[in-house]
């Protein structure tokens, strides 16, 4: 059978393709470094964790710079709100929402995995395999759970995590925890706040006072979903731990942010961005974001997308299980 010109060109293209592929594989062998700085491989495998983190830091810093510039433009003159693009005209003037100003621009140097139920309750964890390999117990704090324990239970199934859990609304968490995990769960019906008020019913506690009560000076993972109380609770913790030479004592924060308005809430664009930056200053970097669109679909609040989940990791942390084999 004689090949027609179309068949010949397909053959030529295929041959070039194979040459390129084999050339790549041969080259990539030479990229593998002799040693990995921290003794474990990274998301890219061919880079050391340190060089990967340098790249992540650069990508994050770029968005911090852009945020500063955009902030001057939009909040410099007047407060245009958190979701200024609502018509063709306002979209042209303000083509973004507040969430665009805090992108999850720091690439987690490990795998990112959604842990827990698909949908409500599930959370994104940077470096799940690092926690799975940990020898000492993963200190997991969970604030704001209700009866939705899919994240906490999967963490306990996959790692040796010990859980300290708090919620305003649930008297006992045991009915929502598999019996096999209950010995590793410590639960109290407490609210989370910037200042402790033990006389309230139920009592309110600051994060620092809860840690002191439990004898902790470090948390591996803090999951916090406390319906707006996150602003005061985390601010007071950040201020209290802002001591000379003191690291921010949390390895990873998995947070749901509630930009509520009305009913005594005061958060606006500049306040939110200052709050956010105060954690970046301590080494927290946003590695993942997921919008929670329930205020839109359930037509609550003003139907604006006021909720979002973020996963922050602490890159200045020297104790954390992400960076140390412990
Ligand atoms: C959790 O509470 C909600 C509403 O109160 C209820 O519909 C749901 O069945 C509960 N889930 C579990 C696992 O008990």
UniProtKB/TrEMBL annotation:
The chain crosses the membrane at residues 6-26. Pfam families: Methyltransf_22 (PF13383). Residues 105-266 form the Methyltransferase domain. Keywords: Membrane, Transmembrane, Transmembrane helix. InterPro entries: Methyltranfer_dom, METTL24. PANTHER family: METHYLTRANSFERASE-LIKE PROTEIN 24, METHYLTRANSFERASE-LIKE PROTEIN 24-RELATED. This is Methyltransferase domain-containing protein. It comes from Coleophoma cylindrospora.
């Amino acid at each position: 059978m004689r090949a027609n010109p179309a068949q010949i060109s397909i053959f030529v293209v295929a041959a070039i393709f194979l040459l390129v592929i084999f050339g790549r594989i041969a080259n990539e062998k030479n990229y593998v470094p002799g040693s990995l700085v921290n003794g474990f491989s990274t998301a890219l495998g061919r880079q050391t964790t340190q060089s990967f983190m340098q790249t992540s830091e650069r990508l994050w810093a770029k968005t911090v710079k852009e945020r500063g510039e955009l902030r001057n433009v939009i909040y410099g003159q007047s407060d245009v709100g958190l979701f200024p693009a609502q018509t063709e005209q306002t979209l042209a003037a303000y083509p973004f929402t507040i969430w665009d100003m805090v992108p999850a621009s720091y690439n987690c140097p490990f795998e990112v995995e959604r842990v827990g139920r698909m949908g409500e309750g599930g959370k994104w964890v940077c470096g799940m395999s690092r926690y799975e390999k940990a020898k000492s117990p993963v200190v997991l704090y969970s604030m704001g759970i209700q009866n939705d324990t899919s994240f906490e239970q999967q963490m306990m199934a996959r790692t040796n995590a010990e859980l300290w859990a708090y919620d305003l609304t649930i008297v006992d968490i045991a009915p929502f925890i598999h019996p096999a995990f209950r010995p590793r769960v410590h639960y109290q019906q407490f609210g989370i706040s910037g200042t402790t008020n033990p006389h309230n019913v139920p009592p309110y506690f600051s994060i620092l006072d809860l840690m002191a009560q439990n004898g902790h000076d470090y948390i591996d993972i803090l999951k916090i979903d406390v319906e707006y109380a996150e602003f005061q609770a985390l601010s007071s913790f950040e201020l209290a731990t802002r001591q000379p030479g003191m690291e921010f004592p949390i390895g990873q924060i998995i947070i749901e942010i509630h930009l509520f308005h009305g009913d005594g809430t005061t958060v606006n664009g500049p306040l939110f961005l200052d709050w956010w930056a105060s954690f970046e200053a301590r080494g927290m970097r946003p590695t993942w974001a997921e919008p929670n669109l329930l205020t839109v679909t359930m037509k609550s609040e003003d139907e604006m997308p006021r909720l979002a989940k973020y996963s922050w990791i602490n890159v200045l942390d020297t104790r954390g299980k992400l960076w140390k084999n412990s």
